[in-house]
Specification:
With 122 residues, the protein is α+β, with helices and mostly antiparallel strands. Helix content is 53%, strand content 18%. Helix 3 links the parallel strand 2 and strand 3. Helix 1 crosses helix 3.
Length: 122
């Protein structure tokens, strides 16, 4: 049962932080198209890793802006979620979207031939 609760908390954190990020007034954060891809909250609710991706790629200014906004995000998260403790937030860049795009490009470039066609030609 604990795993189910942990998954619900992670999903709730992703949903709320996605909305809170839109309210951040830091120019580096408000000017970027940020997607919160996942959250990993520890079972004791003390720490949370928030995975994000951005259309423009990994930007150092965006990472600094998110680090500056972590306190604001944590405060808003405490107001919106009813948890015993509000976790300390750290943002981690998630490159899985870019990796998926590269794999899709490789797969779209492949050509397949039927073995039946090869046998009938000989």
């Amino acid at each position: 049962m604990a795993k189910y609760r942990q998954d619900r908390i992670n999903d709730s954190v992703v949903k709320e932080i996605s909305q809170i990020i839109r309210e951040v007034k830091d120019h580096a954060v408000s000017g970027a198209m940020i997607t919160i891809t996942a959250a990993d909250v520890t079972p004791d609710l003390k720490y949370a890793k928030i995975y994000y991706s951005c259309i423009t790629g990994e930007d150092k200014e965006l990472a600094k802006g998110l680090k500056r906004a972590a306190g604001f995000v944590r405060g808003q998260l405490a107001k919106r979620l009813n948890l015993r403790a509000t976790p300390e937030i750290s943002f981690v860049y998630d490159s899985s979207v870019e990796h998926g795009i590269k794999i899709a490009e490789i797969l779209s470039g492949l050509t397949f031939s039927d073995k039946e066609d090869e046998v009938s030609e000989e």
